[in-house]
Amino acid sequence: MSTANESATANPTVLHFSADNDIADIYRAHLPPGWSLDALSAAPDEAEKLRKVRRADALFLTETPLTRDHLAVAERLRLIQRQGVGYDTVDLDAVRARGIPLAICPHGTPTAVAEHAILLMLAAGRHIVRLHEDITVHGRWPKWDYRSRTLGLDGATIGIVGFGRIGQEVARRLLAFGSDVLVYRAPGRPPLERSWPRDRVRTCPTLNDLFAAVDIVTLHCPLTPENRGFVNRTLLERMKPEAILVNTARGALVNEDDLVAALRERCLAGAGLDTLTVEPPPADHPLFSLPNVVLTPHMAAGTRQAHIIKAQAMFENVRRVWNGEEPLHRVV
After folding, report:
1. Which helix (H) or strand (E) holds 159?
2. Superfamily the domain 110-295 falls into
3. Would you state the CATH architecture of domain 4-108+303-322?
4. Which of 46, 110, 179, 203 would disulfide-bridge 174, Cβ 3.0–4.6 Å?
5. Is 220 considered catalytic here?
6. 13-19 and 58-61 as β-strands: parallel, antiparallel, unpaired?
7. Is 298 labeled as catalytic in the residue annotation?
8. What phi, psi does 48 have (nearest 5°)?
């Protein structure tokens, strides 16, 4: 591993541990003078990954798994920088064994994901995809057909599972729409800050109570071994028949077989999903055949503005490590 003294005579080489694409171009546009940025090819083999990791001083991670074998050859690596906030594709034991800092980048993500979560609420609740297809594919003009089963946000109660940075950004926007917010936080979490209006934002003691009480459930919690598949048939059957499930967190939080069954049986009205358990999903995934589902390809955080903010924050974290400082938002 490089030493701090090298920073006086050399500039870092950053590896975008993903394909050389438009996102890499955004990073290059904000690359500090004298620094180098490398990226993987469109279909890298293991030999390419090992070769490029070996000469990297810092790694920008998206979704390519970072394994023990990669870390074993990372002789110069001084920072593993996740471009988002999840790090379930990283071999954490190997990271700890090497003593390389792993940091997340919360900058840019909360705003973009919050916007996308609300987009999915509106798209599913107001049948946007089906209305578009009725007009453009089926030649219909269903001006009155959907009104009695259309769900808006004004006056609705939205349940937020997980109230970290993203969950709070969602709540702020929902208040502007005229919604009330019910929050579930894992046991042991601190109470809500007093700045939240108590008549509009309240906590709910159990998931069972939250799923039964709200018009929309939106998930904003990390994936852990304990909560994998926690959105199951038991919770889904507690939802109102006109309610919507939104997931912009991790697909494996939801038992997809149970969700498909609940949607078919009209236990809930619809779902807006940005994440699935297997990505990309198989072509015959049963969710594809359901008219009351809106899907997007795990890109809730993917606005141009968010990636510019991320680029600036991640390069600043590399600079800190290069100068012998502790990285911000270190998780390992």
Report:
1. strand 157-161
2. NAD(P)-binding Rossmann-like Domain (3.40.50.720)
3. 3-Layer(aba) Sandwich (3.40)
4. 179
5. no
6. parallel
7. yes
8. -65, -45
